[in-house]
Amino acid sequence: MVEQKMNMPLPGQMPMGMPMNMPLPGQMPQMPTKEDLDPEAAEKFYKANKKNIDKFKAEAMKASKKFIGMSVLPPRKDKKELIDIMLLTDDSHLKIHEKFKFREDMMKKLQEVAAKVDKNIIPDVVILEELWQNCYDGKYDLVQLISAGHHIFDKGMLAAIKISLVHKSMVLKKFEKYIVSYVLAGSLVQGRATEKSDIDVCIIIDDTDVKKMTRVELREKLRAIILGMGTEAGMITGIKNKINIQVWILTDFWDGVKEANPVYFTFLRDGIPFFDKGTFMPLKMLLKMGKVKPSQESIDLHMNSGEQMLKRMQFKINEMGMEDMFWATLNPSQAALMLYGLPPPTPKETPELLRDIFVKKEKLLEDEYVKILEKIIKTRKDMEHNPKLDLSGKELDDLMKGARKYLERIKKLFEQIQQENEKDSVAKVYEDVLDSMRDALKLDGIENIKDEDVEMKFKNNLITTGKISQKALRIFKELSKAKADYEKNKLTKAEVEKVKREVPQLMRAIMDYVNRARGKEIAKTKIRIKHGDKFAEVTLLGDKAFIVDDIDAKTKEIKVAKINKDGSISGEKKATLAELEKALVDMKIPEKVFIKQPIFDDLKKRYGSESEVLITF
Asked: How far apart are CA 327 and CA 311, in angstroms?
């Protein structure tokens, strides 16, 4: 059976073999010529006739669902009232002998629609195969015409053509010497595109005459510039679809074709040239005729690659089962034990510790989850000891499900541990506050107080006397209630949060009082001496005297001396501020400090008879 071939356009002709200056089928006037192309004029023309054009578009969409783009062409110079609308149509569902009739029938329908809407509307149906055949023949007038129009409907093809032509012109303007072919490829030309599909173009660079740099350097330098032009083309056209640009050097492309690389074969089979110096189309036709055949070496390479890929897949499955699954469950398990207060255990110890602490002791975790961890650890161990052991996809899936279930439970365990820690912290805070209250009462002369009496003594001796504010007592009562609730296992999260927020205020009030009282006691141990324009300070602590000759000096020199039984000072040596502070903390200061005459005699010798002494009582 002989297939009916379509008449392909000759140079200077429109689709279906008709000259550019001749009417199209249906006694239609000629379309705009190349000289009429002006994208801005097309947009203004559309806005001026928007109402009728939109009405025609709506009726055309009802007539057929096969349109993939509609474009309002720029106005003609001779007949400016005519509105030329090009309708790009998908013909992939048709057999070759059906395509011409389909176009003819569609033209009749659209001419009837146009006559009802506006007699000046001139529709032209272009089937996709016609458009691509023009490109195969090196005739780009039709794609340029589509690009120059104002697109009123587009499933992605018109945008791809427009941005590709703009990018092509930018690339050729700068690198025409090196560019062999500029080809539209990808899902758009395969009929799988959507409005949001990426736009794929491939550029082949002639590297056969490169002398001043390596082929790789040429490719990378041109690639960087060409990719930048792609971004610029998107900004110029306002098309937001991502343009993916592949830059290949001719030698790599030729090697890929010889080796039957599927990427290059697909590119040759589906690609649409928008510019070609005679490299792409001859190879495309040779491939179509079955003349481009892979070598035996290439066939063997592709055959062996299947086995290699399977081995690689099995290796990845084993690695996921051995390593990824193991660490995904072990690390959170160790973290839970660390949160509990234990150092991180070894992998071998982890399951048993989880069982002892959280299953048996705290009753926070179910044993089934520990068994999941044990199974994952055992799988890793078995595969380490037997390298030939392979995991199946089902086994990996089972491990994955178990690991996911385990991690969800461990997250819940973390929350439980944190809640328990917060509750325990209430009891600890209560003990710390109780100790601070005892210290404050001790400074007031009250010691050896029972726990149950601390609140009453604190109230009577420090609150009612005004030494500490009433608010401190209220906070302590709330803390006592929280402690009682903790012991009854009735402590709420709100109580915990309130304790954490208010107890620092109570501690601050107690410490302020302690510091004030302690400061008064410490002042009793100090003797200040004015000698000349300076002030010296002597701190008497038990059998030691700390001496600062100038308390206003930027760098204070501290000395320590021994206080003898008769009250005199001897054995003076250098000391540090840390030693003085430690002595103040450790020393129990008596209520009354007695100073003997010899110490005054020694101070008189040190600072002179004109010195003056200040003693705090």
From this structure: 23
What CA–CA distance (Å, rounded) separates 355 from 97?
Answer: 77
Average pLDDT over every residue of 220-248: 89
Q: Which residues of 92-115 are buried (b: 16+ CB within 10 A; e: fewer)?
A: eebeeeebbebbeebbebbbebbe
Residue type, 511: M
Write down the residue that tokens 């304790």 correspond to. Answer: 499
The number of beta carbons lying within 10 Å of the beta carbon of residue 573 is 8
| pTM higher than the cut 0.85 | no
The C-alpha atoms of residue 410 and residue 160 are separated, in whole angstroms, by: 51
Six token digits for residue 424: 């325990």
Rounded Cα–Cα distance for residues 186 and 178 (Å): 23
Q: Which residues on adjacent β-strands are paired with residue 67? A: 89
State the Cα–Cα distance between residues 147 and 601, nearest whole angstrom: 110
Q: Is the pLDDT of residue 548 over 80?
A: yes
What are 488's two structure tokens?
């009854």
Alpha-helix residue ranges (DSSP H) falling in 259-358:
262-270, 280-288, 296-319, 325-340, 350-354
> Which amino acid does the sequence have at 119?
K
60-85 pLDDT, tens digit per residue, is: 999 888 898 999 988 888 888 899 99
- DSSP of 522-575, one letter per residue? HHHTEEEEEETTEEEEEEEETTEEEEES-TTSSS--EEEEEEPTTS-EEEEEEE
Among residues 374, 358, 346, the alpha carbon closest in space to that of 415 is found at 358
Instruction: At 458, list the tokens.
Output: 């604190």
Q: How confident is the model at residue 15 (pLDDT cuts 50, 70, 90)?
A: very low
Core vs surface per residue 179-196: b (16+ CB within 10 A) or e: bbbbbbbbbbbeeebeee
**Helix H or strand E encompassing 5:** none
Q: In terms of DSSP bridges, do strands 243-249 and 199-205 run parallel, antiparallel, or are they unpaired?
A: parallel
Question: Tokens at residue 259, please?
Answer: 């080796």
Dihedral sign computed on CA atoms, order 335, 337, 341, 345: negative
CA–CA dist 611, 616 (Å, integer) = 17
The three-state secondary structure class of 85 is strand
Q: Of 278, 14, 273, give the one whose Cα is nearest residue 141.
A: 14
Return the CA Rg of the chain.
46
162 vs 617: CA distance, rounded Å: 97
Across the chain, what does the average pLDDT equal?
A: 83
CATH placement of domain 156-293:
3.30.460.10
Q: How far is CA 101 from CA 23, 25, 108, 342, 354, in A?
A: 18, 12, 11, 83, 78
- In this predicted model, what pLDDT tens digit does every residue of 394-441 receive, in sequence order? 888 899 999 999 999 999 998 888 777 776 777 778 788 888 888 888
Closest by CA position to 417, among listed 354, 332, 339: 339
Helices 141-148 and 39-48: angle between axes, nearest 10 degrees: 50
